[in-house]
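Re: weekly structure request thread

Next one in the queue (122 aa):
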Amino acid sequence: VQLVESGGGLVQAGGSLRLSCAASGFTFDDYAIGWFRQAPGKERAGVSCISSRDGSTYYADSVKGRFTISSDNAKNTVYLQMNSLKPEDTAVYYCAAGWVACGSSLAYYDYWGQGTQVTVSS
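Done, posted below.
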């Protein structure tokens, strides 16, 4: 089982980035893929999630209207389009896979990627 994030980087406030999470080694259609982030000195927190089975989505209030999650089931890949980025979005972003539906607890997710750094300068 493998989840590989990519697409992080350094961007100015107001800019955009698209993160990718490529999954392998499990039945992608049976899992929800969540994006989480962890800033220095803070706990890891949920950002967004999509169920690969029915396409239902979830967004944290802090990113609603700015971030969009999507899934390409043919490529076993989930994307997180991040627009209007703010310095407070700076964090390591992780994707994780949980069974069927989006869960609110980090413990719900079975598989995790290694993370990708997103830095937003002011």
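The mean pLDDT is 95. The chain is about 0% helix and 55% strand.
Next request, please.
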